[in-house]
Structure formats: structure tokens, C-alpha cells
Amino acid sequence: MSIDEAKAQLSHYDELGFAKIDLHRAKRQGFPEVIFGQGKTKEQISQIITSLSNHHNVILVTRINEEKASYVLQQHPDLDYYAEANIVCTPLDSINQSHHCISVLCAGTSDLPIAEEAAVTAEVMGIQVNRYYDVGVSGIHRLFEHIHDIRSGKVSIVIAGMEGALASVVGGLVDHPVYAVPTSIGYGANLNGITTLLSMINACAPGTSVLNIDNGFGAGYNAAMIIKMLENQ
């Protein structure tokens, strides 16, 4: 190969001026750099996608609103927009799914955007996801109807606002890791998710790990890492 081709392969990042795109992240961490859309312009997001697309066949953009997504899809029509998750990514039907599955549960309909962020993130990473929505503790029988299916998964992600009790309940019913995600959904004393966060951190059920407020992406990513470890054994 030429010297320029060798340099391109050895380059650790792509310099765009406003961003340095990490080209080796997939080699270090198993998945390419993920674009956080919030705070970036639509033009910046599009340029980053172009850079990443030259090296990777999977793209994931989180926290992107409809107006930015519309522009990005005009520039990159090979991608899809999942509005409820606020995600632009490689079409999910083009990604091979894992043999093992995870469960994504949310307490109420208001938590759906965070739950979908978690679910779609895992699916982009090739993980099979089962969804159980509106199964909060105020109607606990709704959860029990699905508990055998939830137990058959290898990881559960539990999304809840208010007092966040659902995570502790699920943690006491399954024999696999639980990722709890507090949301900013709730009345005044919820303090934009602080109350939920503290409640989940103090959960008495072992095996429960707590993510940051509204961080569905982090939960989906962590769950995917566990499944990939299982399937690479």
C-alpha cells in the first residue's frame, strides 16, 4: 500500500476542526464512537456521520430531535430515525440479533422515551430486546403477568420515575443483573430525578446497578456488553 494509505489506517482520529473523531474506539471497546446529538448542530452531526461511515458500518446518534434528524436523513438516507428514542442509526432490520435477550421495563408511559433509548441502543449493538412497558408498582399485577418471560432474559433494564420502586421489585425477582435508570419524571419533590436516583441507589435488592438520571443509552450499552461477553465465551 502507499504511505498515505498506511497513514490512514494508523490514524487514531479524524480531525474535523470542531471534533476529533475516535476511529479506534471499536478496536478498544467493541463498538464505534456514538454521537451525542444534543448541543451539536445538524451540520456537525452530519459531518461526524460521514467521517465514521468511512470506517464503520454501524452508526448511532442519540438525543437528536426531529428537526436535526430530518436534515441528517436527507444527507444520509441509508439511516433511520426512531422518534420515540430520539435516535438516528443504522436500520435495525439490517443488524444481526444475539441469541440471548434482555428485557427493558418501564414503570409508566411517561418513561417511554428513556426506555426506547435503552432498547434501541441495545438493538443497534445487535442485542435481542423484549419490552415490558407500563408495569409500575401501582399496578404490580401487570408486572407479574410477564415475570416468567423477564426471568428468561440475561439482563433487565428498569426505567422508572417518581420513587423508582420498580427497580427494587424486579431486582428481588430475577437471578441476573439489573440496570436501574431513574428518570426526571415526577412531581415537585422528585427534584427532576434526584429523589428517584437516591431511592434506586438505596435499593435493598442485590445485583442492581444504577445509571445516571435519564441515561437510557448507558443502560442499553452496558446490557449489550454483558450479552456480547456471554456470546463470546
Word description of this protein:
This protein has 233 residues and is an alpha/beta fold. It contains ten helices and eleven strands. Strands 8-7-9-10-11 form a five-stranded parallel sheet, with helices on both faces. Strands 3-4-6-5 form a four-stranded mixed sheet, with helices on both faces.
Total strand segments: 11
Biggest sheet, strands in spatial order?
Answer: 8-7-9-10-11
Oligomer description: single chain
Strand coverage percent:
15-25%
Poorly predicted parts: none
Count of helices? 10
How would the global form be characterised?
Answer: globular
Distance between the termini: 35 Å
Helix content: 25-40%
Q: What keywords describe this structure?
A:
233 residues, alpha/beta, 5-stranded parallel β-sheet, 4-stranded mixed β-sheet, 10 helices, 18% strand, globular, Nickel pincer cofactor biosynthesis protein LarB, P2CMN_synthase_LarB, PurE_dom
What's the gist of this structure?
With 233 residues, the chain is of the alpha/beta class.
Question: Secondary-structure blueprint of this entry?
Answer:
Blueprint: H1 3-10, E1 13-15, E2 20-22, H2 25-29, E3 35-36, H3 42-53, E4 60-62, H4 66-75, E5 80-82, E6 87-89, E7 101-106, H5 112-124, E8 128-133, H6 141-144, H7 147-151, E9 155-160, H8 165-171, E10 178-182, H9 194-201, E11 208-210, H10 216-231
Parallel strand pairs: 3-4, 7-8, 7-9, 9-10, 10-11
Antiparallel strand pairs: 1-2, 4-6, 5-6
Helix pairs in contact: 3-4, 5-10
